[in-house]
Give the backbone structure.
Amino acid sequence: MERRLIVCDNLDELGRRSAELFVSLAREAVASQGRFSVALSGGDTPKALHSQLQSDAYAPRVPWSDVYVFWGDERYVPHDHPDSNYKMARATLLDQVPIPEENIFPVPTGMGDAELDADQYQETVRSFYSLNEGEQPQLDLVVLGMGEDGHTASLFPDTAALKNSSGIVVSNYVEKLDAHRVTFTVSAINQASFVVFLISGASKASALKEVLEGPHQPNRFPSQFVQPENGKLLFLVDSEAARELTAMGER
Ligand code: 6PG
């Protein structure tokens, strides 16, 4: 597994560099396999990517008709709820670009049971990738954020989802949030061709130091579970988030 660290001066540069990455991976995937599948992340940091991607600087360079969008995780709320990752992505990106509706695969949250909706989403993913039981999808790109506790997607420290090594999508009850989530599993994320973490701000510096330079303790810092088996891993961070790191990373 190739792991790279790029330190950006600020969030704006992080947005531009992540948009460049998205464009180049999308164009490469469409040219070689006719489609580009990506799992978006929730939270605030990916908005820097979205705002660049929907701008005239990048949107015209993306083959939107061959881009297929999933979510790496979702809060178990209605799609019109302020906390919905789907709502955020539509508002900050998908409603602003010419992506066909049929290319967008939101996590269902309407059955009133996160486990049932997770199973439903798992079947959607299986069908898209024509997978047999036990097989994992190979997304072209998984976009991730990281919390101050080192969580990523909805893989939170010491939660049940961390133990699921065979599924693709699982529900996960997060006690400290008293909230149900739906998330890709570590196994599914680690099959991706490319995984990029977008991490910004001083509040992430301590966790990022632990994840990148601390002992391997993924149950405490689940971002450490992300180790693509055959893919590439990039930590795209700003200088505030990187301020406790020993490694300087690339510029
Ligand atoms: C979510 C995300 C979550 C997020 C981190 C970082 O649904 O909230 O998937 O894993 O990426 O909490 O969020 P920020 O980018 O807002 O700091």
